[in-house]
Amino acid sequence: MDQHEFLARLAQPADSRIVLLVLDGVGDLRTLEQPQTALEAARTPYMDALARRSALGRIVPAGHGITPGSGPGHLALFGYDPRTPEADIGRGVLEALGSGVEVRPGDVAARGNFATANGEGLITDRRAGRISTPECKRLVRVLQAAIEALPIAGVEVELTAGEGHRFVLLLRGEGLSPEIRDTDPQQLGVRPLEPQARKSEAEATVDKLNQVLAVLQAAVAEEPRANRLLLRGFSVLPNLPQLWDVHQMRCGAFAGYPLYRGVAGACGMEVVPCGKSFADTLAEAERHWDRFDFFFLHVKQTDAAGEDGNLAAKVAVIEEVDTQLPDLLALEPDVLVITGDHSTPAPIKAHSWHPVPLLLNSARCFTDECTMFNESAAIGGHLGTFPAQDLMALMLANAGRLKKFGA
Amino acid sequence: MDQHEFLARLAQPADSRIVLLVLDGVGDLRTLEQPQTALEAARTPYMDALARRSALGRIVPAGHGITPGSGPGHLALFGYDPRTPEADIGRGVLEALGSGVEVRPGDVAARGNFATANGEGLITDRRAGRISTPECKRLVRVLQAAIEALPIAGVEVELTAGEGHRFVLLLRGEGLSPEIRDTDPQQLGVRPLEPQARKSEAEATVDKLNQVLAVLQAAVAEEPRANRLLLRGFSVLPNLPQLWDVHQMRCGAFAGYPLYRGVAGACGMEVVPCGKSFADTLAEAERHWDRFDFFFLHVKQTDAAGEDGNLAAKVAVIEEVDTQLPDLLALEPDVLVITGDHSTPAPIKAHSWHPVPLLLNSARCFTDECTMFNESAAIGGHLGTFPAQDLMALMLANAGRLKKFGA
Predict the structure, then answer these.
(1) What tens digit of pLDDT does each residue of A104-133 get?
(2) Which residues of chain A are within 8 Å of residue B247 when distances are taken between CB atoms?
(3) Is B57 within 8 Å of chain A by CB?
(4) CB of B196 within 8 A of CB of B182?
(5) What is the CA radius of gyration of chain B?
(6) Structural domains of chain B, ranges and CATH numbers in brackets
(7) What pLDDT band is residue B283 in, cutting at 50, 70 and 90?
């Protein structure tokens, strides 16, 4: 965490607001079959006008050639080196944070699936027929009531419903270890796996977990579909430097989807729940404009369209964001950055390693010769191509929030 | 070796072939006296056509301002940080590997020169009048027979003829140390130096080496020219992560010259001997097309022409490679990279630190606006300018051989 320690020494408060607008997976490709990227194909008069008075560049999320998941992609945007072990946020904790569960140091979190097993105990559906979210909530209430009626000594259990068949299991107590293997066998026709310790330090936790699971399994054993629990991604909160602490900034995260809220929360941002459209996200940021110095606004749909290989849909999302850009600019952020956490090129239908274009506007930015915001223009931008984890320092500098280094 | 550990975690097998075509020292300069680089002056219709559907960029071999030797230059291309001590391959081992000698862990290798000494034992020619390669082979047979007739307890000795006056001495046995000073005094009119231990751990090895040298020297003492042996670069195999292990790829090295075979061998590539022309190299690669996933093809003559300050010769080599590019493309590699291990600008007549242009073609590359492959065009390429040791990850990514990092 050297970069954060370094920045912490230089941090100074300022009366300035930074907006980091992340168009998830916005970076795209030009190929022989797809001669324009989504940003190139989109009609974006407001972004283009902004580009004319901004500096462009490109970020490399997790290293050349490395395709980042959403976790590492966002950690880099928030100034963390996503490749250090300390920055490895387990899936259980991510899901818990994203679901609004308060995760404290030492708590062990796991992702849960409701599944269906047949009369012999063999799994026939790992998602219990994709039960509805209300049904999931009902089942979680059943589980919570069961464990409260038959508590296990030395461990508190908190269950939280997610979307569809998903839930979060949180264990709280002294000396718990997350070094436990998944119980989800990831295949049909077999029994759920027994919890097993990955390291001997976890054996006591596995004992308690077995007792907890016995109570929980019994409570849903007679359910027609959701009669088994599968657990994955046992993990504890990573010990990340907290952004408000490092940068002396109040940071707000405005994201419609759990995972992004989870990452932001783990970094010390206050998560402000908001809807899934950019209009909702923007409205919520406006409502909280006086409460924060740093605003992380997340747009998921660019990534989803890229994963679908749907260039037209990706273009439409970008154009939709563009039409609302004037509302964002009307808030008069001192620093506005538009970029992505990684590329999700439509021809690849998946995250990729390609550099992501970046636009930075502030009163202190170099207005380079770029007149449009897209991948090709960004190659020649004033900011150059640099590791994504350096973006935070650049935003802070443009916001007047970093002192001179040395005399 | 953090980058290799990181990549090893992400490696996944794929049915794809990567070709890394290294035009040794291809990077060149534009100066007032030399207004075009070799790549700019060369007529390269096939490379230019390829550039139009590829991504260009530039690599920095061993850091800005650092002029790499051939060893560090190639290690960086193969994904190693050439500046770590672990990546320091001794000259003796390089020469041995390049000469096709099997070097096992613990073996100590040295480069040998046949030299001429006068009646007083003073060296009059450090290269024994540049004896012919057949003469060298004869002398090495004499040496090998002598040491087999009078073996030294605890050490096996293997001698291998090189080109002209060069040979390789390999010592094999328990507890040998390479911490031995050169016996080559690097000047005339003096005696060969006695072997000396650089560290006390090498004293036992020096004892054995003295016994070995007594036998060998006696065997050639009456030769008219090659009557002395000079040894340099005592070294053991570096403990480099092996490419096939890290990347789950079968790697083949196709190079006409020993040093490049040596580096490739030390990295875990299988060295396929081939001729010195690009036509030979390419034909050999084609013959082994089904045996490997990764092909390192080496062209030496660009570097040699640069070292001679002969721009026309360098241009001719590049044009010769270009005419054969269709044969390479006909193999349909999934990823083709053309670059150099460093620049050898004709005006400098030596290796230099200047970034090296890079062309990467794959179905997943960004087809940028570059329409020619040369230094100037590459400045504006989509790949940007990056450390050479990141190229391996980029090739793997384009070949579908790296999993997503994190969730």
Answers:
(1) 888 999 999 999 999 999 999 999 998 999
(2) none
(3) no
(4) no
(5) 23
(6) 2-88+239-398 (3.40.720.10), 93-235 (3.30.70)
(7) very high
